[in-house]
């Protein structure tokens, strides 16, 4: 009787401790501390592209969105841009949109960059860092794969190869 | 599990070292003194070891394990300070490369073993968590039996118990009033006295025994507070860099609040301007060398309407505040602290279009360095176009001009200058103190004409709902420490055995104080001063007599 009670009490206490420890470690390392995580709805935003056209993320519901944050000084960004451009040409017809968010550089520099690589997808500039704050961008480049329901499917930090870009676009095809 | 019945009739849990009530050792030992730790109670961990749960429990119940966990954590924490942590590396470097380049093979090893991000690594967190688990289980495993033992202790103690106390004496006296005198003196010294069949148990300061456990409860509350920092919304710690004149979203507020930096003020103590008492100090370090003020004149705005990042916000003024060091702007549990600054960041740069030979100027071009326009018309057929702009100029690996960041630390420009006599234009590369003419000799030149600067202020954005929990935990911790440190748990037993009076005493610390107290209690009563059996043994081992003198 006593023995059984003891076992139950010990198990309950250990489980309580384990769950507290597990939660802490999980939330500090494996989970983002915020709403920006895989599975969550991507925060809506409105930004203007180089041609003066506004793009609102929620208007892209029903399509997969390849959301890329970049800067002209960032060499890895420079490397992956042509890949994105080429794959965009393929996947555009299949309902995948690319939105490239520049992290608040002068329009002049952005325009020059776009011209140099002949980018065909919309490039918007986050002048006030508001979208960067909302998406908690730290390293560049960072890419969010957003599915047709507006949910974040994957977050990629670091350079992508063309093969990776292709696979990622394939994965968010509506 | 069988329980053990003592000859005094008390039933003890299995594993008890000596009877909770009368103190008779359960198993005969030959040791002259009793081990009084935990009152000889059965620490559960030591007695049961059956299921896997029991085994885990017993592992964490060991103080030895707890101490090792703390030692390992300390060593790991120390190693984490040898090289900078990853978060403090300069931006845009590859950590794997950086550690090896900077610190050689040691740096490479450091990175490969994962010390580059030590304090957030899973195993470090696991160490901290294990310490927490060890705290809880160690405490539970000791405080419950200890409470039980102290609660069940009897007044009448077995002779072997008394004889095996560290302080013990036997006196042959026949004085009816002796006990009355002793009781009176004990009461005067705030002892709680219990009496049974002519035996006395005088006890005081028992609550000091709970000190360590109160202390542990405080620590556990503290750990819970630290854990809550990972719950979204409980803790915000961000940095906002904001230039004079800018209005920016305050990070960590989910787009709800905006801040305008009206002005950043940096002042120093200057000779002649300050109160005379400062003169000597100013002379010593030099005028203008000591900072007096770091201040951001800020305006806080609240965003009204829906929050859509990137959208032009509708702002409502909340309040103005002069943020200074340790004098934060506080609103809605957020606090903005002055934390850093950058003086004189370039904001605009002016050039004159001149004829290199004659020096004649055809007008001034002012370039906004944050967002330059591409075309500048100077009239009369003179026109300048900005082809490229590099805010933080350097030559990259391929020898092409490039920019390191978007901040105008070292701006460089590629201008194309049009004049009536040069309709196709001339290209000129202009950087600070440097002009390159890539296509040969130009007739015209962009001559530097002046700069405008502004200051940048850095503010820490802080919101902390865990602080009060940490405060409560810390306070309880301190109460526990005080409780255990400044009070002693003292007990004195008196027993009449065949016309003799046996006197024994125990304390959890400060034996010297207890001896002094006993001395004054028994003074003039004829009772013999108890002998310190532990000290006697030590001295005997060293070859002296019981007074410590060597023969």
UniProtKB/TrEMBL annotation, chain A:
Matching entries from InterPro entries are given as:
AhpC/TSA, Thiol-dS_OxRdtase_ResA, Thioredoxin-like_sf, Thioredoxin_domain, Thioredoxin_ResA/DsbE_sf
Any Gene Ontology CC annotation: plasma membrane
Alphabetic keyword roster = Cell membrane, Cytochrome c-type biogenesis, Disulfide bond, Membrane, Oxidoreductase, Redox-active center, Signal-anchor, Transmembrane, Transmembrane helix
- One biological-process term from Gene Ontology? cytochrome complex assembly
Pfam families reported for this sequence: AhpC-TSA (PF00578)
Q: Which residues form the Thioredoxin domain?
A: 36-174
* Single GO MF annotation: disulfide oxidoreductase activity
* Alphabetical list of PROSITE patterns matching this protein: THIOREDOXIN_2
The coiled-coil segments of this chain are none
* Keyword Disulfide bond in record: yes
Is Disulfide bond there in the keyword field?
yes
Can you say where in the cell this protein is located? Cell envelope
Protein's UniProt name? Peroxiredoxin
Automatic annotation (TrEMBL), chain B:
Which parts of the chain span the membrane according to its record? 65-83, 122-140, 213-231, 465-487
Offer one Pfam family short name for this entry. ResB
Gene Ontology cellular component list: membrane
Q: Name one GO biological process term.
A: cytochrome complex assembly
Specify whether Transmembrane helix is a keyword of the entry: yes
Q: Which keywords annotate this record?
A: Cytochrome c-type biogenesis, Membrane, Transmembrane, Transmembrane helix
Topology relative to the lipid bilayer, per the entry, is: Multi-pass membrane protein
The subcellular location is: Membrane
Its predominant location is: membrane
InterPro entries with a match to the protein in the record:
Cyt_c_bgen_Ccs1/CcsB/ResB, ResB-like_domain
Which residue ranges does the record assign to the ResB-like domain?
A: 63-425, 440-518
Instruction: Kindly give the PANTHER family that the UniProt entry links to this protein.
Output: CYTOCHROME C BIOGENESIS PROTEIN CCS1, CHLOROPLASTIC (PTHR31566)
Question: What is the name of the protein in this document?
Answer: Cytochrome c biogenesis protein
Protein source organism: Anoxybacteroides tepidamans
């Amino acid at each position: 009787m006593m023995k059984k009670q003891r076992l139950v009490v010990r198990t309950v206490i250990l489980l309580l401790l384990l769950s507290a420890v597990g939660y802490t470690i999980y939330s500090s390392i494996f989970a983002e501390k915020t709403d920006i995580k895989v599975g969550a709805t991507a925060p809506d935003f409105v930004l203007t592209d180089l041609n003066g056209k506004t793009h609102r993320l929620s208007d892209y519901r029903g399509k997969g969105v390849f959301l890329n944050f970049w800067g002209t000084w960032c060499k890895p960004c420079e490397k992956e841009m042509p890949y994105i451009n080429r794959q965009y040409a393929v996947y555009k017809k299949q309902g995948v949109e690319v939105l490239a968010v520049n992290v608040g550089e002068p329009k002049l520099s952005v325009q020059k960059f776009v011209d140099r690589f002949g980018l065909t997808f919309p490039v918007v500039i986050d002048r006030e860092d508001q979208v960067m704050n909302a998406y908690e961008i730290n390293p560049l480049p960072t890419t969010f794969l957003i599915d047709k329901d507006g949910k974040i499917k994957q977050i990629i930090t670091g350079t992508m190869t063309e093969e990776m870009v292709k696979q990622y676009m394939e994965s968010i095809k509506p | 599990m069988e329980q053990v019945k003592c000859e005094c009739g008390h039933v003890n849990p299995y594993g008890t070292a000596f009877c909770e009530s009368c103190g008779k050792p359960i198993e005969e030992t030959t040791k002259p003194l009793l081990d009084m730790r935990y009152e000889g109670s059965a620490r559960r961990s030591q007695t049961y070891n059956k299921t896997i749960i029991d085994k885990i429990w017993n592992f964490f119940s060991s103080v030895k394990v707890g101490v090792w966990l703390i030692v390992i954590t300390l060593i790991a924490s120390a190693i984490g300070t040898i090289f900078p942590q990853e978060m403090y590396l300069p931006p845009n470097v590859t950590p794997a490369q950086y550690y090896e380049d900077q610190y050689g093979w040691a740096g490479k090893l450091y990175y490969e073993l994962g010390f580059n991000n030590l304090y957030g690594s899973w195993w470090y967190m696991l160490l901290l968590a294990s310490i927490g688990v060890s705290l809880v289980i160690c405490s539970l495993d000791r405080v419950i039996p200890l409470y039980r033992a102290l609660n069940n202790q009897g007044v009448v103690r077995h002779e072997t118990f008394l004889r095996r106390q560290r302080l013990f004496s036997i006196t042959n006296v026949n004085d009816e009033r002796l006990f009355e005198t002793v009781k009176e003196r004990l009461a005067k010294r705030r002892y709680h006295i219990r009496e049974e069949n002519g035996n006395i148990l005088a006890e005081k300061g028992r609550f000091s025994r709970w000190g360590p456990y109160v202390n542990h409860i405080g620590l556990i509350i503290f750990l819970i507070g630290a854990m809550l920092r990972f719950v979204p919304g409980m803790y915000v710690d961000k940095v906002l860099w904001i230039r004079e004149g800018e209005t920016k979203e305050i990070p960590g507020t989910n787009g709800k609040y905006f801040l305008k930096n009206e002005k950043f003020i940096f002042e120093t103590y200057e000779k002649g301007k300050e109160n005379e008492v400062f003169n000597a100090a100013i002379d010593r370090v030099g005028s203008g060398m000591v900072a007096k003020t770091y201040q951001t004149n800020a305006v806080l705005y609240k965003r009204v309407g829906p929050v859509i990042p990137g959208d032009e916000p509708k702002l409502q003024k909340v309040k103005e505040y002069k943020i200074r060091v340790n004098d934060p702007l506080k609103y809605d549990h957020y606090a903005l602290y002055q934390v850093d600054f950058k003086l004189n960041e370039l904001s605009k740069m002016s050039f004159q279009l001149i004829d290199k030979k004659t020096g004649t100027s055809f007008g001034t071009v002012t370039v906004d360095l944050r967002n330059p326009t591409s075309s500048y018309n100077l009239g009369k057929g003179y026109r300048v176009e900005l082809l490229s702009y590099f805010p933080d100029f350097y030559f990259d690996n391929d020898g092409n001009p490039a920019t390191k960041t978007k901040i105008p630390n070292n701006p460089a420009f590629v201008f194309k200058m049009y004049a009536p006599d040069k309709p196709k234009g001339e290209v000129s590369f202009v950087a600070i103190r440097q002009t390159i003419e890539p296509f040969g000799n130009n007739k015209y030149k962009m001559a530097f004409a002046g700069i405008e600067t502004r200051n940048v202020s850095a503010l820490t954005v802080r919101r902390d709902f865990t602080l009060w929990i940490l405060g409560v935990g810390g306070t309880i911790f301190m109460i526990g420490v005080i409780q255990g440190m400044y009070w002693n748990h003292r007990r004195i037993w008196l027993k009449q055995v065949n016309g003799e009076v046996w006197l024994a005493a125990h304390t959890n610390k400060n034996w010297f104080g207890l001896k002094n107290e006993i001395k004054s209690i028994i003074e003039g009563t004829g009772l013999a001063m108890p002998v310190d059996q532990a000290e006697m043994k030590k001295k005997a081992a060293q070859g002296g007599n019981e007074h410590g003198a060597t023969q």
